[in-house]
């Protein structure tokens, strides 16, 4: 959870961790699971307000997009407290949209200036792969990966939903959905687990479902 002091609270969901065996494979009885809502750790206090968060799908790596346009990466090793390992400063506006690719190798960030950036987070020092200055006309509000591990879908204040191919970012979106019926800003977007459909939530309360099949 992002906090007003710029910190991040890591809170128990009340269910077992799915990423690793807390006993280390010893076969011993697992420790009791903290109640839902229990604060397990706090990291990153004293910085700019956190606007977006994305947890790596397979590693204890947490990305945080901030109001000042920075993106911080925090990591935990073998259950140790989370510590910041990297900061990017490619955006000049608040980063509201943030997500990892389905494998976790890439991180996409979108800001209020309409720009999106793609970062390789497999490296010891994450690197910028590409940037699209005018991905949307106005705020980038949401982002989600598709299951093929090469496409992302973004939504914006311009009322559009756009699909991006990691290998063709600089040539523009491979698909752009804009029905022109005055539904307003697209606040959130998501993709089905099989990658065949996408859904988007519009300003007027409408939820639209799109095909993402090529």
Tell me roughly what share of residues is in helical segments: under 10%
End-to-end CA span? 36 Å
> What spatial order of strands do you see in the largest sheet?
3-4-5-6
The SS-based structural class is mainly beta
**Poorly predicted spans:** 18-23
**Mean of pLDDT:** 87
| Largest β sheet strand count, sense and barrel closure | 4 strands, antiparallel
Question: What is the chain-wise order of helices and strands?
Answer: EEEEEEEEEEEEEEEEE
Morphology: globular
Number of helices: 0
Could you describe the 3D structure shown?
By secondary structure, this protein is mainly beta. It is 0% helix and 43% strand. The chain is built from no helices and 17 strands. Strand 4 and strand 5 (71-75) form a beta hairpin. It is globular and about 55 Å long. The model is unreliable at 18-23 (pLDDT under 50).
């Amino acid at each position: 959870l992002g906090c007003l002091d710029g910190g991040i609270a890591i809170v128990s969901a009340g269910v077992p961790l799915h990423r690793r065996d807390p006993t280390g494979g010893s076969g011993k009885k697992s420790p009791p699971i903290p109640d839902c809502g229990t604060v397990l750790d706090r990291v990153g206090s004293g910085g700019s307000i956190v606007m977006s968060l994305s947890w790596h799908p397979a590693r204890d790596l947490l990305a945080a997009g901030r109001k000042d346009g920075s993106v911080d990466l925090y990591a935990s090793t073998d259950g140790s407290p989370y510590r910041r390992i990297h900061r990017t400063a490619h955006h000049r506006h608040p980063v509201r949209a943030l997500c990892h690719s389905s494998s976790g190798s890439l991180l996409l960030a979108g800001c209020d200036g309409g720009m999106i950036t793609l970062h390789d987070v497999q490296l010891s020092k994450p690197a910028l792969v590409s940037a699209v200055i005018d991905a949307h006309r106005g705020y980038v509000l949401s982002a989600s990966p598709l299951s093929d591990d090469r496409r992302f879908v973004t939504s914006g204040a311009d009322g559009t939903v756009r699909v991006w191919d990691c290998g063709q970012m600089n040539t523009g979106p491979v698909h752009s959905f804009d029905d022109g019926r005055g539904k307003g800003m697209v606040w959130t977007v998501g993709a089905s687990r099989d990658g065949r459909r996408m859904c988007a939530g519009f300003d007027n309360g409408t939820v639209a479902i799109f095909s993402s099949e090529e």
